[in-house]
Amino acid sequence: MIVPLDIILLVFVVITGIAALQIKDLLGATIILGSFSFFMCLIYTEMGAVDVAFTEACVGAGVGTVLFIAAVHKTKRRAKD
Amino acid sequence: MLEYIISKYNYWVYIFLMMLGLYGMIGKRNLVKKLIGMNIFQVAIILFYISIGSKVGGDIPILTAEDLHGMADPGKYLNPIPHVLMLTAIVVGIATTGVALAIIIMIYNRYKTLAEDEILEIRKKTGA
Q: What is the Cα Rg of chain A in Å?
């Protein structure tokens, strides 16, 4: 566990989390949520949980983003808040 | 006191992420935004569990060749039990997200909107 890298990645996770909730374009929010999952996967790797990291990378960041994009494509793209 | 707060910095970040997800679920009116908040909440809890099993200077829990000859030191390795539990939690979380998105698509087909207050308004007006 490398402490400066840990702090940098946690800051990135907080920024992408806030941005995913605040942006009004739902497709953009989905992509930012995918990058949130990716930074989370880097944190898992850095903490030594490599199995959790690759599950998060393929299931969380991959399949989750695809499901969200499909749902946004079937419904409306703009959100009011 | 200040050193104590700073030394536990990761827990403060997890609490912040958890409250961010809770705000997304309660404060946002769009249903997809609520789902994104749920995902953030879930990931914060998973990160908390992984952090419990982590330690400074620990190695990943895979036995090497000399460990197999009776010299395995459990204190050298990270605790793998939270890792295995959270592996299941990630997959279950994606399954939950998929079901929720299917329900969101059905709601959109019926009400032609995704905003919670507009859906409640339509339901009140039509009585169904």
A: 14
